[in-house]
Design brief:
With 302 residues, the chain is mainly α. It has a 3-stranded mixed beta sheet with strand order 2-1-3. The termini are far apart.
Length: 302
């Protein structure tokens, strides 16, 4: 006796939707020839590939084949499902971006976890460091650039992915359809969206769900432009305060407890420390928001 399997609503959203005609064609094929082709893929009691065939086979009592697969989590299942769709379907760039876009919550979660661990590790190193030795921000945890990772999976450039995602995130249904159908390229659709924005047409982007953030991680609820301006203003004020403090220290002489003089070394370390802060200020002054409004990407001015 064949087991009963279920269709998970979240996973079902990833699967391609058949048109009414395609569904009727599949049903007629199953009634005429029976079940043929690749087996249904299941994870536990959940269908992860072949849900249309499964429903039709159950409807008409047609025997079917099943292949079970093991995964550690639903996130792994989603990754497998999307890669399976990319591998078997002839998709244009926009369609691949739309499909891979479903990966974003997974990689954003991984990025937050890595950021939290890296900040925690940095804080531990900072506590062990002396003032004259700047703490290293190096970490064995490799940062995850979500857009770059998704672009790689979709087989498009990072810029093309970000342009396509911006169009998909807009409320312009007509433009999205033209891009997905291939009537407009990703680049052309993005340029059209920019033109509409310049002309004052409101482009409504979906509200992002508020995710709980680790208290030790530095994150912001503002958009990239607002946050960059905040960093520049805050750091400039902080630099002025640090510079005054270092100038005051530079006017002093330094000796060890045994009487050895350390003035030259301490002043050199203080000078290097101050130059590091000034270098950071020069860096952030050359940063600006991404024109594709990707909050994970910051443009460096030439």
């Amino acid at each position: 006796m064949e087991n009963d399997y279920r269709i998970d609503p979240e996973l079902n959203e990833i699967m391609p939707r058949l048109t009414k005609e395609e569904l009727e064609e599949l049903e007629n094929s199953l009634l005429k020839d029976g079940y043929k082709g690749a087996p249904l893929i299941v994870w536990g009691d959940i269908i992860i590939d072949g849900h249309n065939r499964y429903q039709l086979c159950k409807k008409h009592n047609i025997p079917y084949e099943v292949q079970k697969m093991e995964f550690e989590s639903k996130e792994e299942v989603i990754q497998w499902m999307i890669r399976a769709q990319l591998g078997r379907r002839n998709l244009n760039s926009a369609q691949r971006i739309a499909l891979v876009k479903k990966f974003r919550p997974i990689y954003e979660k991984q990025a937050k976890e890595n950021q939290s661990k890296a900040v925690s590790e940095s804080n531990k190193n900072r506590a062990k460091s002396a003032l004259v030795n700047l703490p290293s921000m190096d970490s064995k945890l490799k940062p995850i650039n979500t857009s770059e990772k998704l672009a790689s999976i979709a087989g498009v450039s990072d810029k093309t992915y970000r342009m396509g995602e911006k169009v998909l995130n807009s409320d312009n249904l007509e433009l999205k359809e033209e891009m997905l159908s291939g009537e407009k390229s990703v680049s052309a659709a993005h340029k059209e969206l920019q033109r509409l924005e310049r002309e004052g047409h409101p482009i409504i982007l979906p509200v992002q769900e508020n995710v709980d953030k680790p208290p030790e991680a530095y994150e912001s609820d503002f958009n990239t432009e607002v946050e960059l301006n905040h960093i520049k203003k805050t750091h400039h004020s902080y630099l002025e305060s640090i510079e005054k403090g270092i100038q005051w220290l530079m006017s002093k002489e330094f000796y060890g407890e045994d009487g050895d003089e350390f003035t030259s070394r301490i002043r050199s370390d203080l000078s290097n420390y101050l130059e590091g802060f000034k270098g950071f200020e020069r860096l952030i002054e050359n940063l600006q928001p991404d024109d594709c409004e990707d909050d994970e990407v910051i443009i460096v001015k030439k």
